[in-house]
Q: What sequence folds into this?
């Protein structure tokens, strides 16, 4: 399997103009482990490195992306085939990001996301996620 997670992490680190050590502190992991993730293997034995779900959760929180997105980027799941329970949003920014990806819902509803409180954004995002979950279950073949 291609090391898409490693490429993604390296790209995010480069965008932020951070050293390996600085970025690892942001992510809450050791710099040696980040190096292994970016390279996709342990340099000592050449074996592939796969993060735990807890590590992926911490990375997703630190980068303000959903766990689903991170799993998709990592190549562990395909976006249209995610069949897991929806995770609640860790931050208003993550919730807003989710809403903005649902263009039809945000545009159709005429919501003014700029004037909504963080709690309102979180609540709306949870409602949207639950609606999408219900619709996807009803239309699965």
A:
């Amino acid at each position: 399997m291609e090391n898409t997670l490693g490429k993604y992490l390296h790209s995010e680190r480069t965008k932020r103009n951070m050293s390996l050590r600085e970025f690892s502190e942001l992510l809450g992991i050791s710099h040696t482990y980040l190096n292994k993730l970016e390279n996709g293997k342990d340099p000592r034995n050449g074996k592939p490195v796969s993060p735990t779900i807890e590590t992926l959760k911490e990375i997703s929180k630190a980068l303000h992306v959903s766990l689903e997105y991170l799993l998709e980027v990592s190549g562990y799941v395909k976006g249209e085939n995610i069949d897991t329970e929806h995770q609640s949003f860790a931050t208003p920014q993550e919730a807003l990001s989710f809403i903005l990806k649902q263009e039809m819902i945000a545009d159709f509803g005429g919501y003014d996301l700029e004037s909504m409180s963080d709690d309102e954004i979180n609540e709306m995002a949870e409602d949207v996620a639950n609606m999408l979950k219900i619709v996807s279950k009803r239309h699965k073949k």
